[in-house]
Amino acid sequence: MAGKLVLVGAGPGDARLVTCGALRWIERADVIVYDFLVNPGLLGHAKPGAELILAGKHGGGPRVEQGEIIRILLAHARAGKLVVRLKGGDPFVFGRGGEELEAAKDAGIDVEVVPGVTSAIAVPAYAGIPVTHRDYASSFAVATGYEYPEKPEVAVPWEQFGHRQQTVVLLMTQRQLRANVERLRAAGRSPDTPVAVIQWGTRAWQRTIVGTLGDIADRVEAAKLEPPVVAVVGDVVRLREKLAWFESKPLFGRTIVVTRPKAEAVLFAERLQDLGAEVIVFPTIEIAPPQSFEALDAALARPGEFDWLLFTSANGVDAFMQRLRELKGDIRDWHRARIGAIGPRTAAAVDKFALRVAVVAPEYRAEGLVEALARIGVAGQRILLPRAAGAREVLPRALGSLGAHVLEVEAYRSVLPEAPQAPFVADELRRGRIDLLTFTSSSTVHHFVQLMRDQQEVPIEGKLAACIGPVTANTARSYGMRVVVEPKEYTVDALLEGIVELFRGQGGNL
Questions:
Q1: Which of 175, 196, 251, 435 has the fewest Cβ atoms surrounding its Cβ within 10 A?
Q2: What is the reported pLDDT for 57?
Q3: Which element (helix H / strand E) includes 28?
Q4: By three-state DSSP, how is residue 19 classified?
């Protein structure tokens, strides 16, 4: 089978700026060869079993030379694999994508290119700086800010960048910023020309230093900015004070880990991102079928025997209905049973099937559901409880003490998923770049500890955690985590509100 190489632009860093076409190839790839600047969250879209290869680091770490990168790409493509070369920004904007594509074409390998959002435009935009504006700049130029010292002569046409109404964007400029400033001044730019230097643009660690050609090098040096940085030169920088938007969001600068199952994590992650957070979607549980359907199937065959059908999660609702559908059952046969739900989200999952919930727990946990049913009275009644394997025994025991006859059946399991992002999450934890871990069940906590502490050997004691309720919070505390968000209402909405309140006005004091 013939292999294929796809050059894919990963965008400037914010995972939301990746294109639909890029995600399509990431999801299909057999091998992904990625740059250090690629947001590791994108690797979570890789299919199970995909090989992930880091093609070097910046900032003094180990670096894979370009010749070796090309050798890796060709070797895997020749082996008949679909290879995605995932590159920060756009593959053809100072990404050496042209060289890699040439090598693949010369080797007779099928190739494709997916352009990406370049940092030359996106990073200034996230700093509140438009690269063009009718009143300030009618054109813009993009140039590398770093040229190899061994080059016989400077290749960037600095003398062409002297026009006041042209914005100049310099990529990879931190190491040679002082020399580049002098070149722009020699080209005719005034020392008073505004300059912004942006570090880690579009990411949680974005920092923007503003000055002029006369003092920006000193300001950047004093701020100790390190790569990656983008410099913007021109009068458009004056607009930043008015137009800055990203850095004013309530969760800007915060990196938050979401451990919910992948399908459930998306909406929560999007809401956090809308508030300015950098989100690492790191599912620590996966919903799987029960080890045996025997008990569930037997219960589904006796719909007329039950007075109550109790659901303790949306996953339980989905698993019950899916199995009923697979067995060619009819939900109308369950007309005798009233339905109870542990909370509004579970009730909403029932409502999707046009079914009416008779009881929703006022306190969204097992104890609350018991309290609600106790008021109604369930003595002598038969209750079917389809839920996850290993769930707490509080509910069936308490219902039994009320005189109910409870049949608990395993409808699904919460299992440890494949976690290709685990090394990256572990690295971020070690570097202290994760501000908060979020957990919505005890299973997410147990599995997170297994992935991080047991498999990656990362200490988790003292890590800040936001937990949806007291049961989950107690589980996190049992591992030594510091629970800083525990909403009184056990919902994702309340959890989100608690996170915003936590960071409002806290600065770096947590």
A1: 175
A2: 57
A3: helix 20-28
A4: coil
DSSP-derived 3-state class of residue 24: helix
**How far is the C-alpha of 230 from the C-alpha of 506, rounded, in Å?**
28
Task: Give the CATH fold of the 288-415 domain.
Answer: Rossmann fold (3.40.50)
Active-site residue, selected from the candidate residues 57, 274, 330, 454: 57
pLDDT, tens digit (0-9, with 9 covering 90-100), for 163-214: 989 999 999 998 899 999 999 999 999 999 999 999 999 999 999 999 999 9
Task: Say how many C-beta atoms besides its own lie within 10 A of residue 23's C-beta.
Answer: 15
Backbone phi, psi, residue 291, to 5°: -65, -30
293-321: b (≥16 Cβ within 10 Å) or e: beebbebbeebeebebbbbbbbbbbbbbb
Supply the pLDDT for residue 508: 45
Query: Which CATH entry fits the domain spanning 255-285+417-503: 3.40.630.30, 3.40.50.960, 3.40.50.10090, 3.10.310.10?
Result: 3.40.50.10090
The DSSP result for 331-386, as a single string, is GGGGTTSEEEESSHHHHHHHHTTT---SEE-SSSSHHHHHHHHHHH--TT-EEEEE
Q: In which band, very low, low, confident or very high, does the pLDDT at 60 lie, cut at 50, 70 and 90?
A: very low
CA angle 381–326–361, rounded 5-degree value:
35
- Which residue is catalytic, options 35, 90, 318, 435? 35
To the query of whether residue 215 is one of the catalytic residues in this protein, the response is no
> Is residue 218 predicted with pLDDT exceeding 90?
yes
CATH number of 121-248: 3.30.950.10
Q: Which of the residues 30, 87, 90, 172 is marked catalytic?
A: 172
The answer to whether the CB of 436 falls within 8 A of the CB of 501 is no
* CA nearest neighbour of 232 among 134, 143, 135, 117: 143
Per-residue confidence (pLDDT) for residue 173, from 0 to 100 = 92
For residue 256, how many other CB atoms are within 10 A of its CB?
Answer: 25
Residue 35: active-site member: yes
Q: Exposed, middle or buried by CB within 10 Å (0-12, 13-18, 19+), for 267? A: exposed
